[in-house]
Specification:
The complex is a heterodimer.
Chain A lengths: L1 H4 L8 H22 L4 H24 L3 E4 L10 E4 L1 H23 L6 H18 L4 H19 L6 H32 L4 H6 L4 H19 L8 H7 L2 H26 L10 H18 L5 H28 L3 H36 L10 H4 L1 H14 L6 H14 L7 H33 L6 H4 L6 H19 L1 H7 L1 H8 L14 H4 L5 H22 L5 E3 L24 H16 L3 E5 L10 E5 L3 H23 L5 H23 L1
Antiparallel strand pairs in A: 1-2, 4-5
Helix pairs in contact in A: 2-3, 2-5, 3-4, 3-5, 4-5, 4-11, 4-14, 4-20, 4-22, 5-6, 5-11, 6-7, 6-11, 7-9, 7-10, 9-11, 10-13, 11-13, 11-14, 12-13, 12-18, 13-14, 13-18, 14-16, 14-17, 14-20, 14-22, 16-18, 16-20, 17-18, 17-20
Chain B lengths: L1 H34 L9 H11 L3 E3 L4 H20 L4 E2 L9 H21 L3 H32 L4 H10 L6 H17 L18 H4 L5 H26 L5 E2 L3 H29 L8 H25 L1
Parallel strand pairs in B: 2-3
Classes of the chains: A mainly alpha, B mainly alpha.
């Protein structure tokens, strides 16, 4: 690595020693949490401090030369090593910010935290941090697996509920799959490169069939962790099953660790020598994930499931941008490759902040109003004004509305897609045009999903007595929410400076410069042919609102009066329904109906069955509507059937006679010896 | 001097659009009435309605929140910002370098989001119904708009509206099939975004198929005036966008001075008048679709956009 990145020659750089201390602190905090469950508050404090330390280390890593350190521990012949380079630092920044918000929220909730949550949370954070700063494949896998196992413990926190147990089991299966695939990919690569260090791998990029296999394995391994279609089935089940702040961290930081692994292995280490098709699977799977995730987010009926599906959408957009960067680089369009990478990095940061905030808001709603179901919430803006205000900002960012943070990254992504027609063959051009349409569809569906989520949870009338008597979140939780909302506004207003900050990270990923496309107040890709000026837009919006407000004060001074809702002349509800007739308000399924009918039937197999009773029959008419993710019927069900079949076969071994048992052992022995003889030659 | 001219034309453009918006709605209504054999109200009627509404005291539903109070301001401001980006009688206004088609779409999405949330705020059945349909239609209109942007970006080199207008005005590109397809797609998107026939009927109230009017049922007084104004401004900006991209002739460069601006203004008036007449004729001749036929309509727009891009790929490949 030293040759390429100019690594700091100091063998024990203080910044990495600090990082190791923070990791050790997190592990000790995890153990302490396991031994003394009452230590929740202290553990959360340690996590908060460590997260802020990670932010500082990340800023150091982004601004200074890379540094590397070999740890005195590890498997024989392979000491673990840490590398802080700009790409890792950018994702460490993401982790630090999300973990700080989640820890602050955990601090508010520390008195009621379950012991396994107290113990698991710091280990989870430590695992993610370790895999980000790993300098070799073994450390990477170690951190990745620690992250997977710790988060599995956290997902299984509500294990009294069978659905949560099932979610945790499914999550463990997918975690195993992703670990196995990544280990296989790294082993294959290391075998041809002659070492497992990232710098060794970088020096020997794979080619031929090996490149294709490594691409497929990394896509399966990191993609299943990130929630890429078709390996996303676990995500909308497992993310919501964990406690609120853990869901926030899983959706904002953990999927980013998987994306980091993709960017590191497929863009940085695999090098510029890859062919044009190298990025195509990333782009195709990313676009498909974006649409499927957004569509599911617009149809689901549980706040946290909606947010998890929206995570699939955003992961899809980020991965599509990475794929696009690989395609551009293979086509020798360096500036566009840098632009697409910048889009991916910026959107990764923006998504982690607004998604962490939205999950924390969902957790505050669950605590304050007692439900995650959209059909029992409603009207919470009156009881939880601070949470509602923050959630409004965050949901607007998730809906990619300017001038907030979600818009800048998606704008960059679409701009780089719009320039994609310059790439050669016709199928590629058509595919990129289709990707433009899919990204637009995903963005608009995400906006629909966020309007639906916000409108059904915070606006309207309460749909149940519990949400009518909701309580505002405690001060620390509100502080976490306000922090996330403030950061979202800041990121939205300063995409240019942030891209400048990410400049070295972009250079690490694709060896290209992005600085000339990102100015202080302006994003100007392609030599300034067009531009997006977020601060100017915000200023104009604010000026417009202020002018309108003053004008209305002047020309329409009458104070509004309260009255019953008009509702096209619906009669007022009877007195036993103090919040009006609940049926006279859109339900979650009702609000999703247009999209379910327009797009759901083809993609999600949505169906609606109307049962009308015969005339004269007093039975009620029924409308049954639903949808199912095709991945369950298409992938998971056959896998489950295969598992049952294998188990059935294995069961038959029990009934074998002694003779057969002996011959089986003998046969195995002979086969192993034959294998050994073959390997020796 | 050039900077001053750019700024001055930007201010004149804003003033023009702000005054013109309700007038344009009045003209379209008047034209439709004449086509149907009625005398029709004066084109000034929307401005008179606006004044009347401003003088009335707004009534807020008891279940409504601060969203009802704030949303119309956000929506009108976002639409005004969007209108600032679309050139009318000159090119090269002060905001031309940032007049990006996607940013325009973002501003309109912001206005749409505010409108949908305002519709859901009171917790009445029609508001939610309208919001759900509006967001669903937008989900199909947005990709079509992006594909139109792709066609324009391939031909003009960027998605900047001003740059597109400049390249198309030179006429060097000639008449292209892709431009016709993109025009058809953009017209369909414009009809859907403005809640015009065949997607929605702007003249109906209290009908089960309505979309836009359903969301502002609870608005009254100045809030209703703001919503009406927002719709009028959005219509004006979409017509101006169509004129700027597909009929960019006669637009004066900002630096050409008052004479050039007057010529540009005359050309703009002629273009907008013709588009208003076309809209009125179209709306009088066509029936409104069922709500669930709208996806087919917008899907066709999406396919037209894709086809336009495809033709461009093939033709640029042959050159």
């Amino acid at each position: 690595m030293g040759a390429i990145l100019g690594v700091n020659e100091d063998s024990h750089p203080p910044v990495l020693i600090l990082f190791t201390c923070l990791l050790a602190g997190l592990v000790v905090a995890g153990l302490a949490g396991a031994l003394w469950p009452k230590a929740g508050r202290g553990v959360a404090c340690v996590c908060l401090l460590a997260a802020l330390g990670f932010v500082a280390i990340a800023l150091f890593g982004l601004l200074r030369a890379p540094s590397a350190m070999v740890l005195p521990i590890g498997p024989p012949g392979q000491a673990l090593s840490l590398v802080l380079d700009p790409l890792a630092a950018w994702f460490l920044l993401i982790l630090g910010l999300s973990a700080a918000a989640a820890s602050l929220y955990a601090l508010a909730d520390a008195a009621h935290a379950a012991p396994r949550v107290v113990a698991g949370f710091p280990l989870f954070v430590a695992g993610m941090a370790l895999s980000l700063l790993a300098g070799d494949g073994v450390t990477l896998l170690l951190g990745f697996e620690a992250m997977s196992l710790a988060s599995w413990v956290l997902v299984g926190y509500g294990h009294a509920d069978a659905a949560n147990r099932q979610a945790a089991r499914l999550y463990l299966c997918f975690a195993l799959l992703s670990g196995l695939c990544l280990a296989a990919a790294l082993a294959l690569w290391a075998a041809s490169a002659g070492g497992i260090g990232l710098d060794v791998l970088r020096a020997a990029p794979p080619d031929g069939w090996r490149a294709a296999v490594i691409l497929a394995l990394v896509l399966a391994g990191a993609g299943s962790k990130a929630g890429l279609v078709p390996l996303h089935g676990w995500l909308p089940l497992a993310h919501p099953a964990a406690p609120g702040h853990v869901s926030a961290l899983m959706s904002s930081a953990m999927v980013k660790v998987a994306i980091y692994v993709m960017a590191r292995l497929l863009l940085d280490c695999a090098g510029p020598a890859q062919p044009l098709w190298w990025g195509v699977p990333l782009l195709a799977l990313g676009a498909a994930s974006a649409v499927l995730g957004a569509l599911r987010a617009a149809l689901e009926e549980d706040t946290k499931v909606i947010l998890a599906c929206s995570t699939i959408e955003n992961v899809g957009l980020i991965v599509a941008a990475l794929g696009l960067a690989a395609i551009f680089r293979a086509a020798d369009l360096g500036a566009l490759a840098a632009l697409a990478t910048g889009a991916a990095l910026l959107h990764a940061l923006a998504h982690s902040v607004f998604k962490a905030g939205l999950f924390l808001a969902a957790a505050a709603v669950l605590t304050g109003a007692g439900s995650r179901r959209l059909d029992s919430l409603g009207g919470l803006i009156h009881a939880m004004p601070a949470t509602a205000a923050c959630a409004g900002v965050l949901a607007a960012a998730a809906a990619a509305l300017p001038p907030l943070s979600g818009f800048a990254g998606e704008w960059l992504l679409v701009q780089s897609l719009l320039a994609g027609w310059r790439i050669g063959p016709l199928p590629m051009q058509v595919g990129l045009a289709a990707a433009v349409a899919l990204v637009g569809l995903a963005a608009a569906l995400a906006a629909a999903a966020m309007v639906r989520l916000y409108g059904l949870v915070f606006l309207g009338r309460p749909r149940g007595p519990r949400s009518a008597a909701a309580r505002e979140a405690p001060p620390l939780a509100r502080a976490a929410l306000i922090g996330c909302a403030g950061l979202t506004v800041l990121i939205g207003l300063a995409p240019g400076p942030l891209l400048r900050l990410a400049e070295e990270a972009v250079r690490t990923a694709v060896r290209q410069n992005i600085a000339d496309q990102a100015q202080l107040f302006l994003l100007a890709p392609g030599g300034g042919a067009t531009a997006y000026a977020a601060p100017l837009l915000a200023l104009l919006l604010a000026a417009g609102i202020a002018a309108l407000y003053l004008g209305m004060r002047r020309y329409s001074p009458a104070e509004p009066v309260l009255g019953p809702a008009w509702g096209c002349g619906f009669l007022p509800a009877p007195p036993e329904l103090p919040f009006g007739d609940p049926l006279a308000q859109p339900s979650a399924a009702g609000f999703g109906q247009p999209l379910r009918r327009m797009l759901g039937s083809s993609v999600l197999g949505a169906r609606e069955v109307v049962t009308m009773p015969e005339p004269g029959d007093p039975a009620p008419a029924r409308l049954e509507a639903g949808f199912a993710d095709p991945v369950f019927a298409g992938l998971l069900a056959p896998l489950a059937a295969l598992r049952d079949w294998l188990a059935d076969r294995a069961e038959r071994l029990r009934d074998m006679s002694l003779r057969r048992c002996l011959s089986l052992s003998f046969g195995t022995l002979v086969a192993l010896l034959a294998l050994l003889a073959w390997l020796e030659t | 001097m050039a900077a001053f001219a750019a700024l001055l034309t930007q201010i004149l453009h804003l003033a023009l659009l702000l005054v013109l918006a309700p007038l344009l709605v009045g003209v379209v209504r008047w034209l439709k009435a004449r086509l149907l054999g009625r005398r029709g109200a004066s084109p000034l009627q929307p401005w008179r309605d606006m004044r009347k509404l401003l003088l009335k005291r707004p009534i807020i539903a008891e279940s409504a929140s601060v969203v009802t109070l704030a949303a119309p301001y956000v929506a009108v401001a976002a639409t005004v910002v969007a209108a600032l980006l679309v050139p009318s009688f000159t090119r090269g206004m002060a905001l031309a370098p940032v007049a990006d088609l996607l940013v325009l779409a973002g501003c309109l999405a912001l206005a749409r989001g505010a409108l949908a949330l305002a519709g859901m705020d009171a917790g009445t059945p029609f508001g939610g119904l309208g919001a759900a349909r509006e967001m669903a239609f937008a989900a199909l209109a947005e990709p079509a708009l992006l594909l139109v942007a792709l066609c324009c970006a391939i031909l003009a080199g960027s998605s900047n509206i001003d740059a597109i207008a400049a390249v198309f005005a030179e006429g060097a590109l000639g008449i292209r099939v892709s431009l016709a397809l993109a025009l058809a797609a953009l017209v369909a998107v414009a009809l859907a975004e403005n809640a015009r026939i065949p997607v929605d009927n702007p003249a109906t109230h209290l009908e089960l198929t309505m979309v836009h009017e359903a969301m502002i049922l609870e608005a009254s007084g100045r809030h209703l005036a703001l919503w009406e104004y927002q719709a009028a401004l959005a219509l004006t900006l979409w017509l101006s966008l169509l004129a700027a991209i597909f009929v960019p002739f006669g637009m004066a460069p900002a630096a050409s001075g008052p004479i050039g601006w007057l010529v540009g203004l005359a050309a703009y008036a002629a273009k907008i008048g013709a588009l208003a007449l076309l809209l009125a004729v179209f709306e009088s001749a066509i029936a409104k679709m069922r709500v669930f036929r709208v996806p087919e309509f917008l899907g066709a727009a999406l396919l037209l956009g894709l086809l336009g891009a495809l033709f461009l790929f093939v033709s640029t490949g042959l050159l």
